[in-house]
Amino acid sequence: MADSVVSEMQSTRVKICCISSLAEAELVIACGANAIGLVSEMPSGPGVIPEDEIADIVARVPQHVETFLLTSRVDADQIIEQVRRCRVTTLQICDALATEVYAMLRAAIPDVSLVQVIHVEGSEAIGEAIDVSAHVDALLLDSGRPSLDVKELGGTGRTHDWVHSRKIVAECRVPVYLAGGLNASNLGDAIHHVAPYGVDLCSGVRTDERLDETKLKNLMTAVAAANDN
């Protein structure tokens, strides 16, 4: 299990996703984020940037900050090539994989942490999360709809039923990130009800798709307040 994901939990970790430039990365790091998310090609949703830009941003991120590559690919060789081009610390797998693909990824990129996204559309997500948790370093619970003709694999700005998310946190032995419609106003409730290892935000810290420094700082204040309670 790669060290970049798993450490003794002292407070809720913050990942800011859909980073589109080095300036955005520098801003969220200055505000105290623990990780950034960089979105490669997706069937839908915000934040997609070319892989060469992802690699350029990653090369300038301090070592203490995790860099997540979001991928929609499901073929092991294609995913491995992406990771090697982008040189990230963590792979965020946004679609479902065949079980054997996880072993192939482990063998080829052993120093990269694997985080599987579980799209919580209903209670069936609990069993899915338990099953896949044996193969990854962490889970990330989001509100996509991969069953649509054009798959939604994240960045929807919607919350999902946190009752299911709380059960996943309780049942799985790997760290769990919570995403989906989070912002400074509901973050305290989310942390209280779900008790996630970390939270992941995209639209909740943006205005007109631009990173909003005020929203970002309000978010970090809300996280600190939730951890103090």
SS summary, helix count: 8
**What is the CATH topology classification name?**
TIM Barrel
Number of DSSP strand runs? 10
Largest sheet: 8 strands, parallel, barrel
The name of the CATH architecture is Alpha-Beta Barrel
Order of helices and strands: EHEHEHEHEHEHEHEEEH
Task: Kindly provide the name of the CATH class.
Answer: Alpha Beta
Q: Could you tell me the strand content as a percent range?
A: 15-25%
Task: Tell me what you see in this structure.
35% of the residues lie in helices and 18% in strands. The protein has eight helices and ten strands. α7 runs parallel beside α8. The chain starts with 12 loop residues before the first strand and ends with a helix. The relative contact order is 0.17.
Topology:
Elements: E1 13-16, H1 22-30, E2 35-39, H2 51-58, E3 66-71, H3 76-86, E4 90-93, H4 99-108, E5 113-119, H5 124-132, E6 138-142, H6 162-171, E7 176-178, H7 187-194, E8 198-201, E9 206-207, E10 210-211, H8 213-228
Parallel strand pairs: 1-2, 1-8, 2-3, 3-4, 4-5, 5-6, 6-7, 7-8
Antiparallel strand pairs: 9-10
Helix pairs in contact: 3-4, 5-6, 7-8
